[in-house]
Design goal:
mainly alpha, two-stranded antiparallel sheet, 3 domains, 20 helices, globular, 421 residues, single chain
Length: 421
């Protein structure tokens, strides 16, 4: 299938991965969907971070792979075949151990895929081990012990405990009633922000980055978010202006509101259920009180470097969703180029504005700022610092993620239309 595309300049990455995956056979069925393709979580948790490693192998990143790298990508997946087959076998064992232990918390794929890959490298195929079931049971216990006090169930119990609700509600009300008023927003990005946007992709300046944080440039850029319609236009809230969140008592990852509209429960739930959250964060009471304070801060982020990154993201994303925007900086030009080179963008922009996919593509900037906020919020929860040399990866990675989601949704939409015709 892939060989027939060799005359073109590049091969769609998803097609290439699926083609290589199909050659691994039934041994990886537990990691595959009904059509024999790798599960979305298999790609996200195993193939991308552990096998293909696009951050270290840029030739494997993006939506298409150059023809000269097709064989290398295929070979990387096939070479990992034995480890992936063992991973699939360990996953089956861990699911059985989970059922025997009565564990219901968390999604098994999120929790166990990477641990199973580790077990595959440590022990190989579990079928050759007499104590494989015991190792699997210990792994399940270990995974959930690592989550410690940080779990969605414990978080929910803490937030809904009648003995604490009044106190937490008071903390939330106090945090929002004593919010510091940011300085007046400048007209356009501050000069330092503009200079950083011109160089962050190629030669980020750590001294300028530190100067922006020390000067509170991100806080200053948040000044207009309380004005009617500004945060709404940025896609950060569905309301005219941000309001204090509720404590909340439930959350569902597939139906989370926009960032500024999320309850404290929803904000922390989103961070606790991401696949990479294996190490313990703070204890639940500290997480909750910290999130209450964060919700009332500029950009609803606690750290000034995070706020500076959001301000940079706002500048870098100008014009996304429009077909006639002129670049205002090098970073802006790069993001616009990444977005415009997607063939689906040109196709969708020819559709009526009212079409569902047309509305989504024209709303790319809001989707981008939401994705960037979520990533920065997650970094704060995990205590990860944002440094100058990591800013461009954040800015570019947020758009890459949005583009991939839009592309996938468009494919599903077109497939449904084809089925109806």
């Amino acid at each position: 299938m892939v060989q027939g595309l060799a005359a073109s300049a590049a091969v769609p990455r998803g097609m290439l991965v699926a083609d290589a995956w199909s050659q691994l056979g039934d041994a990886v069925a537990p990691l595959s969907n009904a059509s024999g393709r790798p599960l979305a979580r298999t790609v996200k948790l195993l193939l991308d971070p552990l096998v293909l490693r696009p951050a270290q192998n840029p030739r494997f990143s993006g939506g298409a792979v150059a023809v000269e790298h097709v064989d290398a990508l295929r070979r990387a997946i096939l070479d990992a075949g034995p480890a992936l087959a063992a991973t699939a076998a360990w996953f089956q064992l861990l699911k059985r151990a989970r059922r025997r232990a009565g564990v219901t918390e968390g999604h098994p794929q999120d929790l166990y895929f990477q641990r199973c890959y580790e077990l595959a490298h440590l022990h190989g195929d579990p079928a050759a081990l007499p104590d494989a079931a015991g190792i699997a049971a210990a792994a399940v216990d270990d995974v959930h012990a690592e989550r410690g006090e940080v779990s969605a169930d414990r978080l929910r119990r803490f937030l809904t405990d009648p003995a604490r609700t009044a106190e937490l509600t008071g903390l939330l009300r106090d945090a929002w009633s004593h919010r510091a008023r940011p300085p007046d927003a400048p007209d356009g990005p501050a000069p330092g922000l503009a200079a950083f946007l011109d160089d962050c992709a190629t030669a980020p300046d750590p001294r300028l980055w530190q100067a922006l944080a020390d000067a509170g440039a991100g806080t200053a850029e948040a000044a207009d978010l309380d004005r009617p319609g500004v945060a709404f236009d940025h896609g950060l809230t569905a309301h005219e202006r941000p309001a204090a969140p509720e404590l909340g008592d439930r959350a569902a990852k597939r139906s989370l509101p926009k960032p500024f509209d999320r309850s404290i429960m929803e904000r922390l739930f989103a961070g606790l259920t991401t696949w990479f959250q294996r190490e313990s964060m703070a204890d639940v009471p500290s997480l909750v009180t910290g999130e209450i304070a964060r919700s009332a801060a500029p950009w609803q982020l606690a750290e000034e470097p995070s706020r500076v990154a959001m301000a940079l993201g706002r500048g870098a994303s100008a014009g996304l969703g429009a077909d006639d925007a002129r670049p205002a900086s090098d970073a802006n030009a790069r993001l616009l180029h990444r977005w415009r080179r997607e063939s689906y963008v040109h196709r969708v922009l020819r559709l009526p504005d009212a079409s569902a996919i047309g509305v989504e593509v024209r709303g790319t900037r809001g989707a981008y700022l939401r994705r960037l906020w979520v990533r920065l919020h997650g970094r704060e929860l995990r205590g990860e610092a944002t440094a100058a040399d990591g800013v461009w990866d954040l800015l570019d990675g947020a758009l890459r993620s949005v583009v991939m989601d839009q592309r996938d949704r468009l494919k599903r939409s077109l497939a449904r239309e084809a089925d109806r015709s």
